[in-house]
Amino acid sequence: MECKQCKKILVATDGSDNFGQAMSFALGLAKSSGAMVYTVYVVSNVSMYAGTRDVSWAESMNEHFFREGETANNVVIEEGKAHGVEVKAEILEGNPGEEILDFAEANDIDMIAMGTKGGSGVNRFLLGSVAEKVVRHSKVPVLVVPNDAACIVP
Fold first, then answer.
1. 123 in a domain, yes or no?
2. In terms of Cα–Cα distance, which of 149, 101, 142 is closest to 124?
3. Is the pTM of this model over 0.90?
């Protein structure tokens, strides 16, 4: 597995198990090409608590999502260290698809890697709204990896 043109790879994480294989593929590519990996977690601003009068609850939820983002990014950082790949982490806030695309463009990312649910039947053909948006609008290649894909990082 090699990507000579890839000097900067973005791993978009949501902290779920569905991104683990995408991370493995991205780290494998980064190791073989000497690329830098950026890991991004986006705290969605789709406010499920809009209009609530309990501001402390909204703030508590926001803090929870930022902690979740730190944890998710740390998984990529630690895996990167274990495989000799430098990883820089960012937590962004906004619409996940848009933030991933904007980050990729602003940082001259060469490839985006993200996970999606594997499935069967009709679900097999559905990427998920964030992955689909990124695939449709990205100016760089997007590697979408189902969770059940096999990958061993060299």
1. yes
2. 149
3. no
